[in-house]
Design a protein that fits this description.
Uracil-DNA Glycosylase, subunit E
């Protein structure tokens, strides 16, 4: 994927209305630029991990899936899931070869909470997901992603005590 592709993808996402979700890219050039840079840096990734939706302490603030502001800038909120995912990818030595994404790339919920995306929000987000999964090994993270990516291998979501099963499941799914 070329840089111009990531720019048009990000612009399209910023302009999207995905149900009642908060589109963190619509009002922030910084988050759009971070997403563009992230997509460019991972354009050749052979694997994509797909979670449920942007979290209120993660991509809603940082603009990068499964990544907290603290991981990018050293300040701001941290997110447990983001910390676990990046730690496991680093331990496995595969951070550069894995693209992180969500079924719903925008944030369902409020500035201080998450909610499960609706079916309509999942459907409205599907074109973005479909563009990114092409030609990649797909691994669903959690139940919602597993249901949406019917037939894709899945791993447990790392939240709420799932760090060890997530890491083991990822090792198993990737044959590491």
């Amino acid at each position: 994927m070329a840089a111009c592709w990531s720019s048009s993808f990000t612009a399209e996402l910023a302009a999207a209305r995905i149900g009642a979700t908060y589109n963190q890219y619509a009002d922030s050039e910084l988050r759009r630029e971070r997403l563009r840079a992230y997509l460019d840096a991972h354009s050749a990734a052979s694997t994509i991990l797909v979670g449920e939706a942007a979290g209120y302490r993660g991509a809603r603030v940082s603009g990068v899936p499964f990544t907290s502001e603290r991981q990018l800038s050293g300040a701001g909120p941290a997110e447990a899931t983001a910390t676990i995912v990046h730690r496991v990818l680093a331990e496995l030595g595969i951070e550069d070869d894995v693209l992180l994404w969500n079924v719903v790339p925008t944030h369902p919920g409020t500035a201080t909470s998450n909610r499960r995306p609706t079916r309509a929000e999942v459907a409205a987000s599907r074109p973005f997901l479909d563009q990114l999964v092409r030609d990649r090994r797909v691994i669903a993270v959690g139940r919602l992603a597993a249901a949406v990516l019917d037939g894709a291998p899945a791993v447990r979501h790392p939240s709420h005590g799932g760090a060890a099963p997530f890491a083991e499941g990822l090792r198993h799914r990737l044959g590491l």
